[in-house]
Design goal:
alpha+beta; Alpha-Beta Plaits; four-stranded antiparallel β-sheet; 4 strands
Length: 93
């Protein structure tokens, strides 16, 4: 299992909702357009493929792999958002 940070900027409201719903299936929302997810490479590739089917040229989606050591060094200020760090186990069907 690896930790990934997914960031997106979607120009169309309908596509934005579709991408947000897709990301909710794979990870935990930490900000409006930022998700943390823990999964393997195969699962992240499937998520990227599904996202490509929704995205248009003016949209962007960034997937950043984070090493465990880097992830443990993260610094968070402010109130802890409910659900962050509480990952669901996702199964590939």
């Amino acid at each position: 299992m690896e930790t990934w940070l997914v960031i997106y900027d979607i120009r169309n409201e309908k596509r934005l909702r579709r991408i947000a719903k897709l990301m909710e299936r794979y990870g935990v929302r930490v900000q409006k357009s930022v998700f943390e997810t823990m999964c393997d490479e195969h699962t992240i590739q499937r998520m990227r493929h599904e996202a490509k089917m929704i995205l248009e040229k003016e949209d962007s989606l960034i997937v950043i792999p984070l090493c465990a050591k880097c992830w443990q060094k993260k610094i968070q200020y402010g109130v802890k958002t409910e659900g962050i760090g509480e990952y669901k186990k996702f199964q590939v069907l």
